[in-house]
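User: Hey, quick favor. My workstation is busy. Could you predict this chain's structure for me?
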Amino acid sequence: MQLAKLLQVSQQQIASYEVGRRRIPISMLPTLAKILGASLEKLLGMTNGVTKRGPTPILQQQLEQLGQLPRTKQRVVNEMLTGILQQANR
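Assistant: No problem, here it is.
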């Protein structure tokens, strides 16, 4: 209930994300990471517990840029990524 309120979505949406019926929008990932106190890399399961120094990884930079796009453009990018990932997992 608290997470739904912080993300400004319904409890039903959170439940759908949890069981895999719906995917969390890419645009929501930076906010979700901040709420959970985790980096985007950790949230996406891309860290191995080693702290890195230096510039922000390219993927994280791209996700942050994506979060700044209008929602319609975010949806287009999300659909493209979903298609690419589905093909890669076949």
